[in-house]
Here is the input.
Amino acid sequence: MSHHNDLLALLATRSAKRGTFTLASGRQSSLYIDARITTMSPEGLSLIGPLGLEAIRARGWAVDAVGGLTLGADPIACAVSYASASSSAPLRAFTVRKEPKTHGTGKLIEGAFQTGDRVAVIEDTITTGSSARKAVEAVRAAGGTVVGVLALVDREEGGREALEAEGLEVVALTRAAEIVPLIPG
Here is the structure.
């Protein structure tokens, strides 16, 4: 079985649920994907890091760092960074706060991001693209260049297309249509 298929199986058995849910976007859905159950597991991290790094390199994205809006992007960014550690071009990880700190430096971006970095914005699940958009805006405001958006799951509900309409290249490791048939029961 391929690493991609292993990841699909993990997402389907651990993270995907059928029912009636209100998503972070406010939309109602019969499918909920709590990617964190997969992204915060040893098995998930060991698959996501190399697959994410491979996707970034396959696109030819020359990036210095990876990160996105906390909390969903954090384990993915760290897994990709870790997977790159022994490569000739290791990637640093960062996280974007939902609100700037009200104390200390008041930073919106935490971690190893540096002004001038070329970055891949990370998203766990794209629905409308709003979380990725917030991270893109924060990176640009901090002097970074966004090369593209890497998502763990594209829910295939228009978010990818909305980001692409803004000139952002988007790559997803998995799609909802691949996960749904594998959900048990």
In short: The mean pLDDT is 95. The two ends are 22 Å apart (CA to CA).
